[in-house]
What does this fold into?
Amino acid sequence: MSDRSLPETDGTVGPVLRVAAGRAVYVGPSLRLAPHSTSVHCLVVGVDAPFDLRVDGIPDVVAHSALVSPRRVHQVVASGHTMMFGYLDATAHRAGEHLDRMLDVRDGFAFGHRDEDRLITLANHGTVGEIDELLCTTDSSTMDVRIRAAIDHLADPDVGPTVDTSAVAVAARVAMSPSHFLHVFAAQTGTSFRRYKLWLRMLRVAAAIADGQNL
It folds into this structure.
């Protein structure tokens, strides 16, 4: 999937969306979402002000950047105007390297990206391409080749809605039992097979919108 960007709509930074294989980067006004979880890792950056990260069971954290793991229910409450959200699946980044860049890791969340100042500078200038390059170094060398093959199959644009992409069908395609496939898939990607398929559908919809297509 090639990169696509949405045009800016006013004089402020963004909203700009870049969609590519395995990732999406948004810069613009806060999305003001209710508590939710994501299918993939999400890097959150408060561009012009810090934000509150709210999670049930732990005290609120005020930060300029945070890395949220898949399937962790949370809420981002912005205090400024512009936010950056980088949604990154297991094929688009080295999760270990991103965690290593965070200065404070606790309760399944990480705060204080080492490149925080650079990310804020890039976001202020709307240069999502450079943000994308900074965040999304592709390296799937440590991924199980069967899971990599399954992901490539799911992401193939020629795999239409009539193709069976159930866990049973995809597991058979990569010569694994369904139960073992689902276990290894979750361990390798950090998310469930069902939620990963939802993530891919969201990427396709975002790309279609960026291309000006009607849904």
User: Anything to note?
Assistant: DSSP finds seven helices and eleven strands in the chain. The radius of gyration is 17 Å. The longest helix spans residues 193-210.
